[in-house]
Design goal:
The relative contact order is 0.19. With 134 residues, the protein is an alpha+beta fold. It has helices at residues 8-17, 45-51, 73-85, and strands at 2-5, 21-23, 30-34, 39-44, 66-70, 89-96, 102-107, 113-118, 123-124, 130-131. The protein is globular and about 45 Å long. Strand 2 and strand 3 (30-34) form a beta hairpin. The mean pLDDT is 87. It folds into 2 domains: 1-56, Roll (2,3-Dihydroxybiphenyl 1,2-Dioxygenase, domain 1), CATH 3.10.180; 58-126, 2,3-Dihydroxybiphenyl 1,2-Dioxygenase, domain 1, CATH 3.10.180.10. The strands form 3 sheets. Strands 1-4-3-2 form a 4-stranded mixed beta sheet. It has 3 helices and 10 strands; from the N terminus they run βαβββαβαβββββ.
Length: 134
């Protein structure tokens, strides 16, 4: 996943404050993070637009939301607090949802939407990666 951001250094600090581990710190103009079996990269919005052959990218997420799962309702609330403390904005505090889980939403400093979810039907493997049921 690559997010177009206004300030790579600021956004990198935000994601590090959320507990993501940054890799390849010597890479210029980009930041890479381990996102539990996937990679999250932060890349300048203007550079990303140029790479894609576009004049400009809109800020934040329009109709897309990134999400991550945690192991409890309390962990949802703690992740939302951490996002806010790191400079994000909580959009919706944790709440119980119709399918039996507990979710909340925040926006990162560039307006990208994130859902934090606890799904009691999901478990995690020994590496902390989600294990989807059959």
């Amino acid at each position: 996943m690559t997010l177009g951001v206004d300030d790579v250094a600021r956004s990198a600090r935000f994601y590090e404050a959320l507990g993501l581990k940054r890799h390849m710190r010597n890479a210029e103009g980009v930041a890479f993070f381990d996102a539990g079996g996937a990679a999250l990269s932060l890349y300048g919005r203007d550079a990303l637009a140029k790479d894609a052959g576009l004049d400009k990218l809109p800020q934040g997420s329009g109709s897309a939301t990134l999400a991550f799962n945690v192991g409890s309702e309390n962990a949802v609330d703690e992740a939302l607090k951490a996002a806010e403390a790191a400079g994000g904005k909580v959009l919706r505090a944790g709440y119980r949802i119709f399918w039996g889980g507990y979710i909340g939403y925040f926006a990162d400093p560039d307006g990208h939407l994130w859902e934090v979810a606890y799904n009691p039907q999901f478990s995690f493997d020994e590496h902390g990666r989600i294990a989807l049921p059959e």
